[in-house]
Amino acid sequence: MDDRREHFLTMLGDACVAAGVAGIPVELLLRDGRRMSGTPSARMANDGRQPLGETGYSSLLLIDGATAKLDEVVEFVIRTP
Q1: What domains can be seen in the chain, in order of their start residue?
Q2: 28: which strand partners?
Q3: FRET pair for 60, CA 20 to 30 Å: which of 14, 36, 39, 80?
């Protein structure tokens, strides 16, 4: 994984954790074109695997009970409450 992609994924993980703590909704665009929106969990989902690259985050996000693979996210938006 290149440094810029890894940095993007770290920023995504940081933003989703912070949004989850504050109860702020996010919207994700996944590589396959699907969109997910809702409030992320304040912690990353534990899928039993090693953290994704050097991000320190699990490879799964939890958004209103649904999961998305962190490395499939190509865009994320944080909505104002």
Answers
A1: 3-78 (2.30.30)
A2: 36, 76
A3: 80
